Amino acid sequence: MKVLLVVIDAASPRVVGPAVQTGRLPVLQRLADAGAMHRAISIFPSITPAATSSIITGEYPSRSGITGASWYDEARGEVAYYGDDFWVVAREGFGSFVRDFLVRLNGDRLTAPTLFELVERGGGRRAACLNYLVYRGVHEHRARVPTPLAFLPGVPRTQTIHGPSTFCLGDFVATHTVRGRKLKDKGGLFHRFGMDDASTGALLCQLAEDRALPDFTVAYFADNDYRSHEVGPHGALPVLERVDRMLGDAFEAAGGLESFLEETCVIVTSDHGHCEILPEEEQAVIRLDQLLQEFQQATFGRPWQAADDVMLCPNMRAAQIYVQSPTVVRVGAIVRRLLSEPRVDQVLWCRRLTSSELPGYAVATSRGRLEFWRADAGATPRAHDEFGTKWTWQGDPAVLGLELEGGVLCAPDYPNLFERIAGALDSRNSGEIWVTAKPGCEFEVPGGTAHVGGASHGALHTLDSDSLLIVSGPPGLLDTRQPFRSVDVAPLCAKLLGVPVRYGVGDPRV
Ligand SMILES: [Zn+2]
Asked: From ligand 1's centre to the CA of 87, what distance in Å?
């Protein structure tokens, strides 16, 4: 069986579900009718670079190595900064864009194998990447830096990168051309160098028409996220309608959806959701640098200086705070200061920082503190999460809105909370402290701009975390009575393709 994985950035079930029901997304409706529509729980932080890495590797940031949109790369002594929108990096200068994105994100910063690598490593099977940002594969390609950029200082003309055998990355790499449509016209500065939806749609259509779709194809549509940030997820529905039409065109080009589905399973998902941001800046924006002004802050994007206490790495509705020399006293003081801001939702850190080398995690909210850890063999587990991991805790679970339903831990507003917190805090590059904003609010640091009156994401809340999932494939492939996570997408694809991976769909993560 072949697999076509369509990733529509930030497509939310609460927008797509009603639109499918009212006939506004007829192609997604046909796909859902031919299979099942469900939801996927994103990782934390629910932000594009980390979440798209988790989809293609099946791993949390603790193993994928991509710890958000910005983090401190301790080995290099520098800040890895991708923005949510990696074109922020483009604005920072194309030299750093080529180095940070083309070379490092898909190089040694990504510490888990991608499905592109797993599918093509053994030979025999082929994979294609259409504009997906996390593309690492086993085939060498020459990325050509588009002419207007190549003349900028510090920008190499070409760069050797590794991707799948069929690899289209905007104006940078193209192993499959779009005949008669002159993709070049769709590229350039105003179309994110050929990495917008129109380009991905045209490439997919051409591959389908040529009957050239390999065993595994990922097609990435980014525009919905950009528009949702501006006008909110509901206002961005016309972008989803356009993607729907482009998918329809591709299936028609392949000879019709029914025959296409005979040999290909289509999975449509997204990397995260979107949470509406309040229209008044005073209410919406939490200036993290001002909130923590009593602590000496490292200059954003610069390495530590001896006198620095903290380094702030914003991830939109979440932020990580690195603490130089993190003593119990200093961490406690930062946590208290963060909680003094009523728009802060949760403050998270590893328990060992404040409870003398104990394993596990701590969460504080305005309602109190909860510490939790994985129950070892022999220990009495207090409860399982929805995926079967046993946890135990100290403190009042109501602090996080946690409920016990038949012995299973649930937090309706914060899905799969414990595992996702662990998946971020266990990362080698994680900040000592993470902080999330209440719905309606977003963190801002100098140089960044919050999405006031629009929407944003990054936090643990269900609005940020709820992602689309439609699976059109063999009957019984997806059990919609069971919860599903973004990290289950790769195991699902691998199962269909017969490729061995570390975890199965729905397995507890350790
Ligand atoms: Zn995204």
From this structure: 12
